[in-house]
Design goal:
This protein is of the alpha+beta class. It is built from five helices and seven strands; from the N terminus they run ββββαααβαβαβ. Helix 1 runs parallel beside helix 3. The longest helix has 14 residues. The structure holds magnesium ion. The site of magnesium ion has 5 residues, from strand 1 and helix 1.
Amino acid sequence: MDIRTGFGYDIHRLVEGEYLLLGRIRIPATRMIDAHSDGDIVLHAVSQALYSAIGESDIGTHYPDIMEETRNMDSTLLLRDALHRVEEQGFRLSNLVVTILLQEPKLQENKDRIKSSLSHLLGLPEERIAVHANTSERLNAVGEGKAIECYSLVTLIKEN
Ligand code: MG
């Protein structure tokens, strides 16, 4: 059996806005994610983790910010591409961990919605997904409400 681990990370600036897009779920907020694409930081971190698990280069290499084609791009396309490359190499996703760092709003009530959305997008049962959220205790850019960060870990399995 071939087992791989992948890690993904992303950070985005927050600007004035009405909602945050996290794992395709729109969460009412007073800030929004500033990005060249649709800014779905959760999908970016998960895609990055998938790419890393199979030794692929990072999202920026696949989808440069300067490309006109990626302006306002739906990040599910990115996720599908990453998943497709994983499956092409004979791996299946075994489990997924996502940790979101955000000062406000609190994500407690929305974590299950994000998990269910990720389960749907990835075809992965919910019991194999963890979505955690933390504030940054009002420290650093995240804590000051200027940024949002997301970390992700994946495990892939190939049966021989
Ligand atoms: Mg990003």
